[in-house]
Specification:
The complex is a heterodimer of chains A (382) and B (81). Chain A is an alpha+beta fold and 382 residues long. Chain A contains nine helices and ten strands. Chain A has a five-stranded mixed beta sheet, with helices on one face. Chain A has a three-stranded antiparallel beta sheet with strand order 1-3-2, with no helix packed on it. The radius of gyration of chain A is 42 Å and the shape is elongated. About 6% of the residues of chain A have low confidence. In chain B, helix 1 packs across helix 2 and helix 1 crosses helix 3. The chains are: A alpha+beta (382), B alpha+beta (81). Chains A and B meet through helix 5, helix 6 and helix 7 of A and helix 3 of B.
Chain lengths: 382, 81
């Protein structure tokens, strides 16, 4: 038995019972004017007294000239036919009306479910994920369900298109180095008489393949962090010490470009994270900050304790990021207009985001063109 | 010869591996204890510094670049740089 049939019967029963209860209630309301021991018979016989115990009569009304006598039988004598009549005349119509109402209510109530299954069938049959369940007015649980279902479809579609886009980008970004790699290898193979030219071609191959490998490794790191498969050896990492280590690596690079790197981190401030990954995150941000700063500008690594989380930020006074690019800088392989002329893969920030989010934290950026950028990381405290 | 700490560490690492190609990644690991592969020019800058101090005034260069692989120390130049 399907759910809707069950529901129809259930509603039918409920409506019938309600109608019956109403009739009983009405009957009881009439109680005072009716003698329940007596039921009216079909014929009215005037003034025929039999006096037998089976058939009795009583006087129900009197006028000045005559007495109207109603013939009646006690209920127990004729109870079956009486009940049959009552059933056919009253109960059956009530039951039918009840079932009809039940069917109507069921159909009306289950409409969202019907359109839901229709939409799902449509999506399964055509593969078009853009289909949505039509929303009916009202705010019942089923309508809420339909709304949520549509939201889930939206989210799935967004994820799918993001995946497609990422895949397209990867394919696109791989094609260029692979083409170069192939042509270098061709050159090396075709150069038979000149050993040093052959070696040069092979060096090209090495350079390109290192680049491709590095890109694939980083992409896999990002994917691993995003899916939560990245192993994190968390411990309390003293931020001052870690920042010192990262800055030391970039000391010479900063010196060469005339950028001053300073820190503003309270003593003893720790963050609960994987130290190697955190170092990677800070290195990426510092590398960017120096890269996009000009001579004489300052880069600051700061950290502070806030309500429930630890905030780490890297601030520069450099070229800044146009607001239209700010939302996309975290995307894999996305490179802003300025970034395209720099070395790099367009993966640094997506790795930063993936790693920080794998720690349960969040990333954000505030930036203004020609005034610099501030990248902020928030790590929840355990 | 006036060398900074990291320059000295790099020179020491080169001298421990004479005639062998050392990659940028392994330089990062040994000089900075950096255990991943960052897309930086940190190593280039460091090597450039050391070169300026060690090789600048000499005809016979100690540090050679092996393109695509890294650097090699203390080997006769074959014009591959």
């Amino acid at each position: 038995m399907t759910f809707s049939t069950k529901l129809t019967l259930w509603y039918g029963f409920v409506f019938t019972a309600a109608a019956a209860a109403l009739l009983v209630a009405l009957y009881h309301l009439l109680d005072d004017s009716i003698d329940k021991e007596w039921r009216m018979t079909r014929s009215k016989i005037v003034a025929t007294w039999s006096g037998t115990p089976d058939h009795t009569a009583r006087e129900v009304a009197l006028s000045a000239q005559q007495a109207i006598i109603e013939g009646a039988v006690p209920v127990d004598l004729n109870v079956n036919s009486h009940l049959h009549r009552a059933f056919y005349k009253v109960a059956l119509p009530v039951l039918l009306v009840g079932l009809g109402l039940g069917a109507w209510v069921t159909h009306h109530g289950l409409r969202p479910l019907h359109s839901l299954s229709q939409t799902v069938r449509h999506i399964l049959a055509t593969g078009k994920t853009s289909a949505r369940v039509p929303v009916h007015s009202g705010r019942g649980e089923l309508n809420v369900l339909v709304g949520l279902f549509n939201q889930m479809l939206d989210k799935n579609e967004k994820l799918m298109s993001a995946m497609h886009e990422a895949l397209d980008n990867v394919a696109h970004d791989l094609r260029t180095p692979m083409t170069r790699l192939r042509s270098s290898a061709e050159t090396a193979l075709l150069t038979t008489d000149n050993a040093s030219a052959c070696r040069e071609a092979l060096k090209d191959c090495m350079e390109e393949s290192t680049r491709v490998l590095s890109m694939l490794n980083t992409l896999m790191d990002v994917a691993e962090a995003e899916t939560g498969a990245m192993p994190l050896k968390r411990e309390d990492v003293p931020l001052q010490e870690l920042a010192g280590k990262v800055i030391e690596v970039y000391e010479l690079v900063a010196e060469d470009s005339g950028v001053t790197v300073t820190t503003d981190i309270p003593d003893q401030l720790c963050v609960h994270a994987d130290p190697t990954r955190l170092q990677q995150v800070l290195s990426n941000l510092l590398d960017n900050a120096i890269k996009y700063s000009r001579k004489g500008q300052r880069v600051t690594l700061a950290a502070r304790e806030l309500d429930g989380y630890t905030e780490v930020s890297v601030t520069d006074e450099g070229v800044g990021i146009p607001s239209r690019e700010q939302a996309r800088i975290w995307d894999r392989l996305y490179r802003g207009d300025l970034s395209r002329s720099q070395r790099g893969l367009g993966l640094g920030l997506s790795l930063v985001k993936a790693i920080v989010e794998a720690h349960g934290g969040s990333v954000s950026v505030k930036s203004e063109v020609n005034h610099g950028s501030r990248f902020t990381l928030r790590f929840p405290r355990p | 010869l006036d060398l900074q700490a990291r320059e000295l560490a790099l020179l020491e690492y080169f001298m421990r591996n004479p005639g062998r190609i050392v990659s940028k990644t392994s330089i990062l690991e040994h000089v900075y204890e950096y255990s991943f592969d960052p897309q930086t020019n940190v190593v280039d800058v460091l090597v450039h510094r050391l070169r300026n101090k060690v090789d600048k005034d000499f005809e016979h260069k100690l540090i050679q670049t092996v393109r695509g692989m890294g650097y090699i120390f203390g080997k006769e130049s074959h014009g591959q740089a």
